[in-house]
Amino acid sequence: MISGFWKNLPKPIFGLAPMANVTDAAFRRIIAKYGKPDVMWTEFVSCDGLQSPGQKELLVDFMYSEPERPIVAQIFGSKPDNFYKTALLIQELGFDGIDINMGCPDRNVEKQCAGAAMMKNPKLAQECVAATKRGAGKLPISIKTRLGFNKNELDTWLPTLLETDVSAITIHARTRKEMSQVPARWEEIARAVAIRDKFDNSSNKTLIIGNGDVIDIADAKQKIVATGCDGVMIGRGIFGNPWLFRNCHSEAQTIPRLGGVGVGETLRGQHSPASPTPGREAFPAQAGNWPSPATEVDIAEKLRVMVEHTKLFEKLLGDKKNFHIMKKHYKAYVNGFAGAKELRIKLMTEAEDASAVEKIVEKFIQITNSPAAPLPLA
Ligand SMILES: Cc1cc2nc3c(=O)[nH]c(=O)nc-3n(C[C@H](O)[C@H](O)[C@H](O)COP(=O)(O)O)c2cc1C
């Protein structure tokens, strides 16, 4: 049954995937400002950890700001009592919903019978959802999972989850065994919708959100039409592109795009709906190996937003997280325009704080805007 904020979302739903050490409080604030999706998730946080003396450190990952709403707290674990207590805490913290991770393949998570390991313990998975519901009050519950553990188990696993009567189930269209090494199997999202409809064809049935390899909003829209799912969650497509969800519900999001650019020009993306989506093999699924972002944003603006992101990171997380996290973002932001390689190298090797990043970026913008300087930062 759909409840809480999920009832009021526009359809189809465009959501930002939770990504540990990527979609943190700083990046989400930037995304909320420049291209807000319909719903965002926090990075996942351990229920056991939150119920331990280490709680204070973990609460960093539950930091959020009002413009991010609706914002869903994502948790993982395997002890129903800790799910119950954590749900009470999440209510207190003022989140809009709670999401249970049942898909993470990380060995440390799985060792705790949590994340993807939940798929091997359907009864425990149901108990954890029930315990979360008991502690959640009116907050809606959702689940993020995969097609199965070693093989596709959608026919049994999805009904197991549907029995828990949660508001939404996001399915990353791969099995645990497949990790991210094969293309996401979107035909299975269509099958998930059929299984859900057979299970419950009321007007208030659990939402099915598809996930995996979606490049941009135009791609998401094609997949929604092809599968009949209620929405799409996008992860790596956001790398270096906080504008990704801007105007996601408008037709304009499907306009054709152009190629490479320089400062003073605008960046447009790699494919148009009129031409075929680029082969998935061109976009391997590993983190950091994602295509350079598709935006129509002036390069100088893009770089200044990167600086703004860096300053926010420093302010909110500077004493809690490693600056190396920002450097991973630079690889994605600084891509696909003249002088990008040189700028990227300079940022990777010389910048250790926001003020250094700002200086390097402003110099780059100044030099590249001057007609006398064909080789920026050379
Ligand atoms: C760096 C990174 C961190 C991730 N962290 C989480 C997480 O905390 N919780 C979660 O449910 N999934 C996590 N995921 C999985 C993504 O939410 C998503 O399911 C996956 O990237 C596939 O979607 P995409 O192809 O749109 O990126 C992570 C993925 C990446 C690349």
Q: What does this molecule look like?
A:
- The chain is an alpha/beta fold and 378 residues long.
- The chain has 2 domains: 4-254, TIM Barrel, CATH 3.20.20.70; 255-369, no CATH class.
- Helix content is 38%, strand content 12%.
- It is built from 13 helices and 8 strands.
- The chain has helices at 25-34, 47-50, 55-58, 80-93, 107-111, 122-136, 154-162, 186-199, 217-227, 299-317, 324-333, 340-350, 354-369; strands spanning 13-16, 39-46, 71-76, 97-102, 141-146, 168-172, 207-211, 231-234.
- Strands 1-2-3-4-5-6-7-8 form an 8-stranded parallel β-barrel, surrounded by 4 helices.
- Helix 1 links the parallel strand 1 and strand 2 (39-46).
- It is globular, with a radius of gyration of 21 Å.
- It binds flavin mononucleotide.
Shape: globular
What's the count of strands? 8
Low-confidence parts: 255-265, 267-294
What is the top-level CATH class of the largest domain? Answer: Alpha Beta
The largest β sheet comes out as: 8 strands, parallel, barrel
